[in-house]
Design goal:
By secondary structure, the protein is mainly alpha-helical. It is 43% helix and 3% strand. The chain has seven helices and two strands. Strands 1-2 form a two-stranded antiparallel ribbon. Strand 1 and strand 2 form a beta hairpin. The protein starts with 20 loop residues before the first helix and ends with a helix.
Length: 162
């Protein structure tokens, strides 16, 4: 139930597939309940998740590229707009990772969010990232560091010493 491939890590929302706000909230609830050990409560929400999965499949079908659109790219068609990489340039490479290394395709401001799906459709490349979506954060970054006086408190302290 929303369990990722890493033990005690749960996934929810768009990383599990685009299906809209309600699905994101629902998978968040399921993941939260499962993480809290409330398995029966999480299981009770599974029929609703199945409904959102059907909606996801309908979205995928409704917005799938028509095959003839894949034949529209011309040699000078920009595929990666962030790094200004053309269709002709990318045809010289065998994979997403090779194209990234040689052309910087997917390394611009959008980080491959636009050109990644385009290259998947045009060349059949697997553009999945190996970067994990979560990183360890030091506790000090979450406010456990040294406390600071509030602006009012700092003013009061300054006035009392004058």
């Amino acid at each position: 139930m929303q369990q990722a491939t890493i033990t005690n890590v749960f996934a929810a929302g768009e990383p599990t597939g685009i299906a809209g706000l309600e699905s994101a909230l629902l998978t968040g609830n399921i993941a939260g309940l499962a993480a809290a050990g409330k398995i029966e409560e999480a299981k009770a929400l599974l029929p609703r998740r199945q409904k959102s999965e059907r909606f996801r499949a309908q979205l995928r079908s409704a917005f799938a590229l028509r095959p003839e659109l894949l034949n529209l790219a011309q040699p000078d068609t920009i595929v990666c707009r962030c790094e200004d990489v053309t269709f002709e340039t990318l045809k010289a490479y065998e994979s997403w990772s090779e194209a990234k290394r040689q052309t910087r395709c997917g390394m611009g401001a959008c980080q491959g969010r636009v050109c990644g799906p385009a290259t998947e459709a045009l060349f059949g490349w697997n553009t999945s990232s190996v970067r994990p979506p979560l990183f360890p954060v030091p506790l000090s970054a979450m406010g456990a560091g040294p406390s600071r006086p509030s602006p009012n408190q700092a003013t009061t302290e300054r006035l009392s010493t004058e």
